[in-house]
Amino acid sequence: MSDRSFARNLGITLAALATACTTSHKPEADPARLTTIMKAMDKNTPAPGGAPVCTPDQMIGGATMTQVTLLKIAEEPANIGPSRDDWINPAELDSPAARELIDPSTDETTRRQAAYELLSAPFYLVYRIDIVDAPMAIGVKDLKRGTVGARVFRFDRKGDIVCVKVLAFQNTLAKSDWAILKSNLAVMDPKVSAVLREDLRSELLRHIQALGRPDAP
Description:
Elements: H1 3-23, H2 31-43, E1 63-66, H3 67-74, H4 96-102, H5 108-119, E2 124-133, E3 147-155, E4 161-170, H6 173-182, H7 190-209
Parallel strand pairs: 1-2
Antiparallel strand pairs: 2-3, 3-4
Helix pairs in contact: 2-3, 3-4, 4-5, 6-7
């Protein structure tokens, strides 16, 4: 083979490889499109009892996120309080693309790829913590079992509400009784509060894992 033929064949091969790399590139979208949808979802959050109840099959298959993550993507401020704290809004509830969008270290290309992924979701499932009535968990010495009230919203791709599922859960009785016995000082021990927060977080994840199962009779 002549040097000229070799160079020509090498050029063809490199061009083919470049084309393959280009065609395998992940699709992208403008994150601002998603911000608009998230703002609509925040605006369309219904009052208690203001939407149909979701069936178990409606809770599976969408992109998920906490209300805190929704507000960050929407570029809206979150109310300050225990219901917006990270421990009761765990990162495990966010789709990976949602986490990438709110991570300040994410580069622009990855952000655009994450936006495309979320925009392609069939629907959005948002976990909203409404009330944290758990004084010992947040460091207040009021010796009662902690309770959390939450709702799970399904929104369509435009940001309109479809249905809602109500969740209510408590500290496990064993952890609550243990914390009460340990709380013999004038103020709450931070280590005891931390155990109770982790217990509530685990109970939240346990309830969410069961969302796709039929309701017990």
